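Notes from the 1:1 (GR / supervisor)

We went over the backlog. Supervisor wanted to see one worked example end to end before approving the batch request, so GR pasted a single chain during the call. The sequence is below; no edits were made to it. Supervisor asked that the structure be written out right there so they could see what the output format looks like.
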Amino acid sequence: MDLPLEGIVVIEVGQALAGPLAGAVLADMGADVIKVEKPDGGDDARGWGPPYGPDGVTSLYFHGQNRSKRSITLDLKKAEDVEALHKLCETADILIQNLRPGVVDEIGIGPEQMLARHPRLIYCSIWAFGFEGPMKMKPGFDPLLQAYGGMMSVTGQADGPPTFAGASINDKATGLFTTIGALAALRWRDKTGRGCLVDASLFETAAFWVEGQINNYIATGDIPKRHGTGAAVIVPYQVFQTADRPLCLAAGNDRLFQRACRVLGHPEWSEDPRFARGGDRVRNKEALVPLIQEVFLTNTRDHWLAGLDKVGVPSGPVNDIGEVTESEQMAAVGLLRDLPEGGPKIVSLPISFNRKRPFPRRASPRLGQHNREVLGRD
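Structure output shown during the call:
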């Protein structure tokens, strides 16, 4: 299929997750992404296993973030390899880098140097803490930013310790914000003829995830608390245990709460002044949630889900990873794809164009696989 970014050339200088994820998304949408790796081992994520891919060496983690790219090796501590990178940027549209803060300036490929020489280039920098402030030179990984950025403080059971999210959400969202910025900058270049510097950071992403809690704190001075699987301002909006398996109930307004009460056999709850309106339910959560939980324990998950679904109340099972992977809905949307050339099966781009999902065009590359093709050398 024709893809929207065909003809766009991206240079990716980085490793791990945020930068490579941005490159993978752009590659899936048709861009030619050239991944620059250090000659000695390449991207550290190549070894983040087990499990490994079909070669028994390259991690599945790496395969997932580096499909459809070409790999070259450059030692950017050498002037001749920095010059080789400059040569590539003469015809490139976007450069993405997430090296340790300060490194790009030390080796002469910082944004000022690159944009001065390549004024049409979109230069994307991914930081841990941002391009300014007292912590701008600190490195960081996703768990650290979940902690420092406040997310952990509102994740977990109310009487338990702060908890990490189960996925690298700051890394991934920062990669996506970088992609959004790069695409917007391309549109800007279409209008002005000039490139652009795009900055994103894990810290700013972490703050964005908890923007509601930050806004509430600014308004009230109250420190947000953990609510387990529940929400601070909507009740009931959480996981409940049934007689066999847990389910998630999301009665997000008064009408849905009324319908849920009928399914649970207690229509009077929706008339109770403690629970009738959303704000009432939030203020009286400690009284309402145990009542709902007691009823759910009287029958199975499938029983309750069937009743809630019949009246249009949003609800669903709490699937484990195996269940969601094997679900009919996963098969129907076609999100899982086999990489070409005998590569492993991965989760592909969660976007379709004209109702068609792009296929990965290449397997993830071997280290330096495209040196001859791109650089004219081995």
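Supervisor's comment: The mean pLDDT is 95.
Batch request approved.
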